[in-house]
Amino acid sequence: MSDTGLVNPESPWGEVWVKFKSHKGALIGGTIFISIILLVLLGPMFWDVDPQRLNIREKNQGISFAHPMGTDQLGRDTFAQVLAGGRVSLAVGFTAMLLSLVLGALIGVLAGYFKWLDGLLMRSTDLFLALPLLPLLLVITMLYRDTLRAAFGPETGIFLLIVFVIGITSWMQTARIVRGDVLAIKEREFVQAAKSVGTGSSRIITRHVLPNILSPIMVSATLGIANAIITESALSFLGLGFPSDFPTWGRLLNDATAFITLSPERVIWPGLAISLTVLSVNYLGDGLRDALDPRQRGR
Amino acid sequence: MRKQFILTAAAAALLANGAWAARGDDGHVNILYWQAASILNPYLSGGTKDIESSSLIIEPLGRYDENGNLVAWLAEEIPTVANGGVAEDLTSITWTLKQGIKWSDGTDFTADDVVFTAEYCMDPNGGCQQETKFADVDTIEALDPHTVKITFTVPKPFPYGPFTGGESPIIQKAQFLDCMGPNAPTCTEANFGPHGTGPFRVTEFRANDVISMEANPNYRDPNKPAFASLTFKGGGDAASAARAVLETGEFDYAWNLQIDPSILSSMAEAGKGTVVSAFGTGVERMMVNLTNPAADLGEARSTVEGGPHPFLTDANVRRALSLAIDRVTLSEVGYGDAGKPTCNVLPAPAIYASTANDECLVQNVDLANQLLDEAGWMPGSDGVREKDGVRLSILYQTSTNAVRQDTQALVKQWWGDIGVETELRNIDAAVFFGGDQSSPDTFQKFYADIEMYTNLFNGTDPEAYMNNWTCDEIPSPANNWLGNNMPRYCNPAYDDLSVQLSKTAAIEDRAVIAKQMNDMLMQEGAMIPLVHRGRVSAHINTLGGIKLNTWDSELWNAADWHRVK
């Protein structure tokens, strides 16, 4: 433990970092993920092609210096579109994931910890699971689209709507898993011990339960990002998402599938971006889980 | 030398055209429709696939050829006022049937069968899908075994509703006698294997899958059809159907290939088959909302009561929007050979096509900008034109379809060039065209400034189609949003022309009125036509005799199909 340099191995976060560092996959995943974020955020500063500019004379072009990833059927620059699409997709993925995570963890913990809430919360979880997703999305977008559009403009309005819709329709799995873990941990000796010395419920949850269920939450989070990106693309495909000229990875992928025989690379770029992001987030989550799990620490 | 070669080629072509061929010489032909046929009786189904598959077996008295002209089929000639077949007062039409025609079971085809067909469809308990074909029919009687007289309750300038076109073929009285009224759908044997006068007859029918047929031994031309047997396969999707003909050659003919033209042409490069297209009356057009679609109007949104549109009621704006569009590029990108730029909502048949609006064929951004400048619409700080606090900001909606979204993106860019801001919206086709009263996203409710889709009419007479834009046709909550006048266009002069059209018989006079109606709609900017769309099908190179018909069944001349050797 002498190579930790600036980090004090005695502090809990230092210990997490040491543990995380030893996980090769997590380190590589984290690096790739951070580079994707940086590329997507800073990319447009050095690649200042307008992703929505059409140039019909340069349609369906292959890879060249002018167009590093080629152009689509209307002559839009694919590289610029992938960069712009990434910002939207990642923003949607993260925000929707956070929302569903907070909802899922909250409901899961409450249901698992407080017996009197369990029945009510779990039945409402079942209710949400039983709801047919697409008709529900149709109704929600139909009811609130115009209001949000008037209040925030077409793009921000739709962004909020999509994030909200994905968030409130994908928390159920997390809630169920969290509840199960909480039920098990609640009966463990250290929680019983804390209870017996008079620790309050909120303190037990934050100090003892939450740290022990971080791993399933982390796994849910990583899967949630992927799920949100894919749900967003499905929504856009049905015409419920962003306007059709507003690039997102899911939409780019959808648009490109028709051209798979003509220019296969068009499917590869957004597909690669989605896969790399999801894979690296998964590895990152894996490493974080190992590092954060107090039972595995020091092993 | 060269001339000699051409002559030889011409002679070879003549030979190939079946001059010496006999019935059944060319073996087997495979047809692929990506929607499968479910019944072979068009009176019990409105589906195109059912009408077209049955057109191989049963035939009408007259039908439309590939140019949209009525041609006699089971009749000696098309009755007109000139040849005495249609009464001077336009209340009756008399058809004379061809002699010597036999049903596929060997019995004679007579006027009784024609009369029976009308009785079959006009039975109020029968649920006939083609009842509109028999509108205003008073009586149908057989004057002798080869003469049928139809009397109408009102004068009919266009008396060719009954028994013309693939939707209204003659069925055999002997076979369908017990299938009248409520029994119609239960007659499975007759509905799945009608006796016909056409070139083929059914050997096996598997609903929603495949139909096997063989040449009709009693067909009127002893040398036709060239094919001894035929398979009519259904199912799949447009792209796989195109692939089956153009790339793998498994099928000889595939129908309705609505896919991106560059994908279609890359398939055609395999060299196995040919893409054919022909133009009917379909026009991809933008509907301009002349009423106010603002959300805060509530129930009165997009209705005449809700008031006029804040800026689309300015004729200069509408003309500028139309001028800014490059229709040549639009049709190339979205439709390839199956589309051509048009400035008319009534582009065909040729005698109805107006040339008065051709200004829009060439994109003219400068003129568009000038029009907006002169009308007082000045660019604001963000480049979007505005006047008295009203911004030229358009919500442009259409159904979800890759070609339509490409069109939207292009139009958005061109409108951006003249300082008009555009927001795009695409709606699932099932919702957009679904007509659900509770959905705000239907094309009838039109809660947007501009909407785009294709509309067309069958046959060649535009009267019913042009009546779509009369004041009565405006959709509103009062009529449950039914009606076809999407722009909410209302002009008494237009309504007068519509009444005049219904009273005019001579086709030249009808053409003049129809053109006037078209020009009125175009020049007042109620609609912005974009692309005249064709029908697209594909056939393998060894299949000859294809004449793609957009006015009638595509398989109308299957008797002339043959193998090119």
- Beta-strand share of residues of chain A: under 5%
The beta-strand count of chain A equals 0
Q: Would you state the CATH class of chain A?
A: Mainly Alpha
Q: Tell me the quaternary state.
A: heterodimer
| Total beta strands of chain B | 21
CATH homologous superfamily name of chain A?
A: MetI-like
Largest sheet of chain B: 11 strands, mixed
Mean pLDDT of chain A: 83
Q: Give the CA-based shape of chain B.
A: globular
* Helix fraction of chain A by DSSP (H/I, runs of at least 4): over 70%
Measured on Cα atoms, how large is the radius of gyration of chain B?
26 Å
Determine the mean pLDDT of chain B. Answer: 87
Structural class of chain B: alpha+beta
Helix/sheet category of chain A: mainly alpha
Radius of gyration of chain A: 22 Å
User: In the CATH scheme, what's the topology name of the largest domain in chain B?
Assistant: D-Maltodextrin-Binding Protein, domain 2
Name the overall outline of chain A: globular
CATH-scheme architecture of chain A: Orthogonal Bundle
The fold-level CATH name of chain A is: MetI-like fold
Written account of the structure:
The complex is a heterodimer of chains A (299) and B (565). Chain A has one domain: Orthogonal Bundle (MetI-like fold). Chain A is 72% helix and 0% strand. Chain A contains 12 helices and no strands. Chain A has helices at 12-21, 24-46, 78-113, 115-130, 133-152, 154-168, 172-186, 189-196, 201-212, 214-237, 249-257, 265-292. In chain A, helix 2 crosses helix 12 and helix 3 runs parallel beside helix 6. In chain B, the strands form 5 sheets. In chain B, strands 1, 7, 8, 9, 10, 11, 12, 16, 17, 18 and 19 form an 11-stranded mixed beta sheet that branches. Chain B has a 3-stranded antiparallel beta sheet with strand order 4-6-5, covered by helices on one side. Chain B has a 3-stranded antiparallel beta sheet with strand order 13-14-15, with no helix packed on it. Mean pLDDT of chain B is 87; it is low at 5-19. In chain B, helix 8 (315-323) packs antiparallel against helix 10 and helix 14 (492-503) packs antiparallel against helix 15. Chain B is built from 15 helices and 21 strands. The two termini of chain B are 24 Å apart. With 565 residues, chain B is an alpha+beta fold. Chain B has helices at residues 2-16, 48-54, 111-122, 173-176, 188-192, 238-246, 261-268, 315-323, 327-335, 365-374, 402-417, 429-432, 463-466, 492-503, 507-523, and strands spanning 28-33, 62-64, 70-72, 92-96, 137-144, 147-152, 200-206, 210-215, 229-234, 253-254, 273-288, 339-341, 378-379, 385-387, 390-391, 393-399, 421-427, 450-455, 527-540, 543-544, 562-563. The A-B interface holds A 52-54, 56, 59-60, 73-74, 138, 142, 146-147, 150, 154, 237-240, 243-245, 255, 258-259, 261-262 and B 239, 259-260, 262-263, 266, 295, 329, 333, 399-400, 402, 405-406, 408-410, 412-413, 423-428, 431, 439-441, 447.
